[in-house]
Amino acid sequence: MSALRLLWVPVLLCLTHAWLCHGVCVEVDSDTEAVMGKGFKLACISCKMRGEVPAFATVDWWFMAKGESEFVHIYSYANMSGYIVDDRFDDRLAWNGSKKTNDVQDGSIFILNVTFNDTGTYRCFFDRTLVFPKYKYRTDATKFININVVGKATRGMASIFSEIIMYVSLIVLQLWLLVEMVYCYRTIAAAEKIPRASVSKKSLKPKA
User: Fold this and answer.
1) Domains of the chain and CATH, by start
2) Higher pLDDT among residues 79 and 14, named by residue
3) Closest-CA residue to 159 (of 30, 39, 20, 6)
4) Contact (CB, 8 A) for 140 and 79
């Protein structure tokens, strides 16, 4: 029975690693160039430092138009629902982040029908609470995105580099998962051979 229990240890480790990789979070910078009349995604991702700890978060977006000196609250997301605060963005902002969960790590929003007045600096603010067994820990994260609206799309090097980094990170994580699965498989196979070998040795012993 003890040998059987030992066999389950690597299996559980494999399942744990697979789950962690499945829910991987990668922080990618937002594009900074929007095109007049098109849609544009304001990307804002804030990964938890402790992925295994349950949490809940709210996200608020602020905007400082070009030529202005103060940020204005434009959008708020909490309890799996969002609402537009600033009249300038009525019917033009939509949630594009984490779905069906209060444990928000992707706080991105989408601007519909971009105008030149949308040029400026956007501030994304995460207010997160980590729920430990005996206490709660509150933390926050702020990101700034400078958006320039142009009449015609011109993809910049920063956008290309960010996309490359994202794909490389995903490939590395997939390879790491594959290595872990192979290691677990070999561990299980080796553990299964030990009881069989001991039984074979016992059967070869001469009877008294």
Assistant:
1) 27-172 (2.60.40.10)
2) 79
3) 30
4) no
